[in-house]
Structure to design on (219 residues):
């Protein structure tokens, strides 16, 4: 078995000829190892931008969910789900997005990671109409609601059940590119009541995976 694991000291040194390509040194090395460099370069050339074009901005503005990937300073990763009314991820320009952070369970896993490591990956998927996804990778910072609202006064002021953001994650776009539709399932929305901001354990899912009950029984 060939070991193609990169040493940490090599991670930020571009391979010869790849200095101006999107993506990581690791992906470029594997493209060469597995013979996919030509296909990858076509994708970089045809689909990857360092900003959001008009079509991407329109797409973001109608999405009602997003998946957020973060990691801490040591590289330990977390993926979190965010949802809200269509357009809850706000387009602030061709190179800037923001999404709200509300009062939650107090863990602040994503925000904690961002405070250590500004690199964030966002995936938005249209499961209903166009069956397509958009990756947005970039650098983030945490901004208090009042601070961001002073610069962008058109941010939403009314939220269901009086639920207002405590702060925002502002993302500077580094890469934006398509996620192909071939394996995206079509989902059909159904009417439901969403208990935005609830602290009711049952409405939040309770002890669905049995962790609390198992630990309680073991005491």
């Amino acid at each position: 078995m060939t070991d193609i694991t990169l040493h940490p000291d090599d991670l930020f040194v571009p391979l010869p000829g790849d200095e101006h390509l999107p993506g990581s040194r690791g992906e470029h090395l594997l493209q060469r190892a597995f013979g996919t460099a030509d296909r990858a370069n076509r994708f970089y050339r045809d689909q990857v931008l360092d900003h959001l074009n008009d079509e991407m901005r329109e797409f973001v503005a109608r999405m009602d969910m997003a998946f957020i990937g973060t990691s801490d300073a040591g590289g330990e990763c977390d993926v979190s789900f965010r949802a809200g009314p269509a357009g809850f991820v706000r387009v602030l320009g061709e190179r800037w997005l923001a999404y709200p952070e509300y009062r939650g369970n107090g863990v602040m896993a994503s925000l904690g990671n961002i405070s250590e490591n500004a690199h964030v990956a966002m995936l938005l998927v249209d499961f209903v109409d166009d069956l397509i996804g958009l990756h947005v990778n970039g650098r983030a910072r945490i901004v208090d609601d009042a601070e961001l609202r002073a610069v962008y006064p058109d941010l939403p002021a009314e939220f269901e059940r009086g639920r207002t953001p405590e702060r925002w994650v502002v993302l500077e776009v580094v890469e934006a590119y398509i996620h192909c539709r071939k394996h995206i399932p079509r989902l059909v929305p159904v009417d439901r009541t969403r208990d935005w901001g609830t602290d009711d354990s049952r409405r939040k899912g309770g002890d669905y995976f049995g962790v609390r009950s198992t630990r309680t029984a073991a005491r």
